[in-house]
Specification:
- The complex is a heterotrimer of chains A (273), B (267) and C (351).
- Chain A has helices spanning 3-33, 43-50, 52-85, 88-103, 106-117, 122-129, 143-166, 171-179, 184-212, 216-222, 229-238, 243-272, and strands at residues 35-36, 39-40.
- Chain A is built from twelve helices and two strands, in the order H-E-E-H-H-H-H-H-H-H-H-H-H-H.
- By secondary structure, chain A is mainly α.
- The mean pLDDT of chain A is 90.
- Chain A has one domain: Orthogonal Bundle (MetI-like fold), CATH 1.10.3720.
- In chain A, helix 3 (52-85) packs antiparallel against helix 9 (184-212).
- Chain B has a single domain, classed as MetI-like fold (Orthogonal Bundle), CATH 1.10.3720.
- Chain C has 351 residues and is of the alpha+beta class.
- Helices cover 24% and strands 35% of the residues of chain C.
- Chain C has helices at 42-50, 92-103, 108-121, 137-149, 167-184, 195-201, 219-224, 229-234; strands spanning 4-13, 16-26, 31-35, 57-62, 65-66, 77-80, 155-159, 187-192, 204-209, 212-217, 239-248, 251-256, 261-263, 272-278, 284-287, 296-305, 310-316, 319-325, 336-340, 347-350.
- In chain C, a hairpin with a 2-residue loop joins strand 4 (57-62) and strand 5.
- The longest helix of chain C is centred in the middle third of the chain and has 18 residues, at 167-184.
- Chain C is elongated, with a radius of gyration of 25 Å.
- The chains are: A mainly alpha (273), B mainly alpha (267), C alpha+beta (351).
């Protein structure tokens, strides 16, 4: 036995599993999206792209994902910076603070928001008590509810991917900038931000992708009237049972994700190398 | 290192961290709060204090059946993901095979491809080939999406180990099997453990794949909760959720005690 | 009879040949250093003896047995790595016992005894229960040494094992290495880029340059009579000064490029263009105005104070020469000086 054979034996089960149980299903879905009763067809795509309802679903998905990504980046960057710069004990606690929600089921976290944002929930009530909202004010079943819930779900991804880059920045660069007369905020802008950019970009792409493809939180917080693409896919699969149409929608989502992931792959490769 | 930072900014930073912490933890605190409520209805802050909903959950066949399915799937997934992923990571790390870099990317790809796209493909393929989904489908699906975590954590610990250990073992007379078992595997162990914990956690908490690959008589715990939330939530959902949160907290503590959570958080 | 015979070893990585036909015989019990700059191929050569690299052509024999095709675990060798390669999950004691376990030497009780003995020879018997990580660099080093000799291998291979230690520890370890080598009589191949280490430890030095043996011989021989410009520059960091040899009145002279000349010893046979190797410590400085006579006129550029000695950088015509001077007189930058050397200490190398 040579080293090569040994390693081939070790890697083969994984390669087979991923190929057969991961990539073949995705291929099957791609095929199904163009399968008609008589050969190949694009009718499912036509149906989606010519229906104003679905176009508005698509637009809402992109718009909400962008908003969610921006908010996550705006909170995630300072959070990661602070985490990288505090003492080790506090950092441990902050990491637990980020990881605990991350490792908790999305369903459970969304449930928490349902309670908080619901008609008699704590947040609308506080807003009403403060006189900031009218009596029949509601957050549940609005796009705002989706954004709030999704930001909480995805913020950990953003924070950790920026943290990974920031901890690797040479601390002396900041000190050097200060000795050269740069203020604290100036250093943050001219030294830390550019160096953290790979993390911010990678985190943003990840958050955008995850946001565009989630349906559990949008379904539960937005309700059935405010649909996003992934929720519409879920509906086509489980309620209308129109699988080819579901596949076509998934392909549209897939294409959008690939458009984003290709630069992401190049970016991470550069960051590794 | 918060030296030389303007005072107003330091205060601002603390306020910011506190608000972010509140935002991140609020839903979890609320769920736990609701679960100890005495009232029939979901309410936060809770009305009264009781453990009646926990008692309810522990006597509910529905929840217990779901928990049993989730547990079985998660354990099977953990074992297979560790075996297959660990072996693959060792082979990739050694770089004797061509395309090692490409293989690493291949193994990590389920991390970045949205689960929903995979879930719908898996459902369609399985139905076309084997008919109705089963616990086996869920097992395969969860193994595929947790494999990257095991591969990644194992590769991470291997890349930190002394690259000459295997060669040293060779010069000391260790044969192929002895090197794998007595030298390489002990180096992988922390990565395998961490990856295994993540795999268990993801499989146990995962909702997307489980929602697509479900049968009325085969619902995992997250799917069970999702169903309740869509229709008629009562505080028993909060009690189940709280138990799952407790399990997550327990896992985090174990990972941190055994391996240090920081090591695996930022890569 | 644990001698090592390498014949015609070549090694290529892809299209790049890094060893170009190396033949070397190491006698049983001999301590041979493979000395050279980084990237010269010395470590590759050692790894070929260990069996960690295959040869492109050529053969390796250990104790008269051709082992070229044998994997490392079936060669009777031990190797010490630069990083020590101690197994982090095993105790110090279990690390030392590991080769015995793997090679199936002795019963369990015998293995324990031998491992304990080996740890005692490096004075670490009391730390057997610790993990390698809990030990200092010098202690880890000694554990690695104990582990390398515990199975009494035919050949001991050392890959720059001292380079991660600080200067003091390194000297202690050199003594320890010599003592263990003498006591066990192991055939030893030692890779290093440090000429002092090679000079002080070896029975024989093999100087390697760009995949070829540049020169080999006993330390004193290599130091006193470097055969090539590379050898004299690498060992002792001699100044290399271009010159040409002429017949003078009292014997051969070397004429430098700026026209000055210097007397040579009698037995110089070369004529025409050559390179003179002038050792820093063989050169002496005198004030230019003192009783004029022999010696080369030169000018001080820089002086670096080294305590008991001073290092001077001297301009000799267009050539820069380094001198280590122990004289009382100190010169300053810009001073004119005379540079003298015992004619017998000048090495004349063909150009």
């Amino acid at each position: 036995m040579t080293d090569r054979t040994e390693n081939l034996v070790l890697v083969l089960p994984g390669l087979l599993l991923l190929a057969l149980a991961f990539f073949v299903p995705i291929a099957r879905m791609l095929v199904l999206s163009v399968e008609g009763e008589a050969g190949l067809t694009l009718t499912h795509f036509e149906r989606f792209l010519s229906d104003p309802f679905y176009l508005s679903v698509l637009w809402r998905t992109v718009r909400l994902s962008l908003i969610i990504t921006l908010i996550c980046a705006a909170i995630g960057f300072p959070m990661a910076y602070i985490m990288a710069h505090v003492g080790p004990r506090l950092r441990l606690w902050l990491i637990v603070l980020v990881i605990l929600p991350l490792m908790t089921s999305v369903v459970i976290r969304t449930f928490g928001w349902m309670v908080l944002l619901g008609r008699s929930g704590l947040i609308p009530e506080i807003l009403r008590d403060l006189g900031l909202a009218e009596r029949n004010f509601a957050i549940m079943r609005t796009e705002a509810a989706i954004v709030i819930g999704m930001v909480q779900v995805l913020l950990p991804f953003m924070t950790l991917s920026i943290l990974g880059v920031i901890t690797r920045i040479d601390r002396r660069l900041e000190e050097a900038a200060r000795t050269m007369g740069c203020s604290f905020l100036g250093t943050l802008r001219t030294v830390v931000l550019p160096l953290a950019m790979p993390g911010i970009v990678a985190g943003s792409l990840l958050v955008f992708t995850l946001s565009a493809s989630s349906f559990v939180t949008p379904n539960l917080l937005g309700g059935s009237r405010i649909q996003v693409l992934a929720a519409s896919i879920y509906r086509s699969v489980t309620q209308t049972l129109d699988w080819p149409f579901a596949a076509a929608q998934a392909v549209i989502l897939f294409a959008g994700v690939l458009l984003i992931l290709i630069p992401y792959a190049q970016l991470t490769r550069r960051a590794d190398g | 290192m918060v030296r030389a930072v303007p005072a107003w900014l330091r205060v601002g930073a603390w306020v910011f961290v506190a608000l972010t912490a509140l935002f991140l933890l609020a839903p979890l605190v609320v769920v736990v709060g609701v679960s100890v409520s005495e009232s029939q209805f979901i309410a936060f802050p809770p009305d009264g204090l009781s453990l009646r909903w926990y008692r309810e959950v522990l006597q509910s066949d529905r929840y217990l059946a779901s928990a049993w399915i989730s547990l079985r799937v998660a354990l099977a997934v953990t074992v297979t993901a560790c075996l297959i992923g660990g072996a693959a990571a060792i082979a990739i790390h050694r770089r004797t095979l061509p395309f090692s870099e490409a293989m690493a990317t291949f193994f990590l790809s389920p991390l970045v491809l949205p689960t929903i796209i995979y879930a719908i493909g898996m459902l369609m393929l399985w139905s076309a080939l084997f008919g109705p989904v089963s616990i086996l489908t869920l097992w395969l699906g969860h193994t595929a999406i947790t494999l990257p975590f095991v591969v990644r954590t194992t590769l991470a610990v291997l890349s930190e180990s002394d690259p000459f250990l295997e060669e040293a073992a060779k010069t000391m007379g260790a044969n192929r099997l002895q090197r794998l078992w007595l030298v390489v595997l002990p180096q992988c162990l922390p990565g395998l453990l961490a990856g295994g914990f993540f795999a268990f956690n993801i499989s146990f908490d995962e909702a997307v794949l489980s929602l697509f690959l479900r049968r009325p008589d085969m619902t995992t715990l997250p799917v069970q909760i999702y169903g309740q939330l869509e229709f008629s939530p009562d505080p028993s959902v909060a009690a189940v959720s709280s138990i799952m949160i407790a399990l997550t907290v327990f896992l985090i503590i174990v990972i941190d005690r055994m391996l240090g959570i920081q090591k695996f958080a930022s890569n | 009879m644990a001698d090592v015979h390498l014949s015609g070893i070549t090694k290529s990585f892809g299209n790049v040949e890094v060893l170009h036909g190396i033949s070397l015989a190491v006698a049983s019990g001999e301590f041979v250093s493979l000395l050279g700059a980084s990237g010269c191929g010395k470590t590759t050569l050692l790894r070929i003896v260990a069996g960690l690299e295959t040869v492109t052509s050529g053969s390796v024999a250990i104790a008269d047995r051709d082992v070229t095709a044998l994997p490392p675990e079936r060669r009777d060798i031990a190797m010490m790595f630069q990083s020590y390669a101690l197994l982090p999950h095993l105790s110090v004691f279990e690390n030392v016992r590991f080769p015995l376990r793997m090679r199936g030497i002795g019963t369990r009780a015998e293995q324990h005894e031998r491992a304990r003995d080996a740890l005692e020879t490096v004075q670490l018997a009391h730390l057997g229960d610790r993990r390698p990580r809990q030990l200092s660099g010098g202690q880890q080093q000694r554990v690695a040494l104990a582990r390398a000799v515990v199975s009494r291998p035919k050949v001991l291979l050392l890959d720059e094992p001292l380079s991660n230690l600080d200067a003091r520890l390194r000297e202690d370890m050199q003594v320890e290495l010599i003592e263990i080598h003498n006591r066990l009589g192991l055939t030893t191949l030692f890779v290093t880029h440090d000429q002092d280490e090679a000079l002080s430890l070896s029975d024989r030095i093999v100087l390697i340059n760009q995949g070829r043996i540049e020169q080999m011989g006993a330390p004193a021989e290599i130091y006193d009579r470097p055969a090539t410009a590379y050898a004299s520059n690498f060992i002792g960091a001699a100044n290399l000064v271009p010159a040409s040899i002429e017949d003078g009145a009292g014997g051969p002279l070397a004429r430098l490029e700026d026209g000055q000349h210097i007397a040579l010893g009698d037995q110089v046979d070369e004529r025409g263009p050559v390179t003179l190797a002038l050792r820093q410590e063989d050169l002496a400085l005198a004030p230019a105005d003192a009783d004029a006579g022999d010696g080369l006129k030169a000018q001080v550029r820089t002086r670096v104070f080294l305590g008991a000695r001073s290092r001077y950088v001297i301009a000799l015509g267009d050539t820069v020469v380094r001198v280590i001077d122990t004289g009382r007189a100190t010169f300053r930058s810009g001073d004119r000086v005379r540079l003298t050397i015992d004619p017998e200490r000048i090495r004349v190398l063909p150009r």
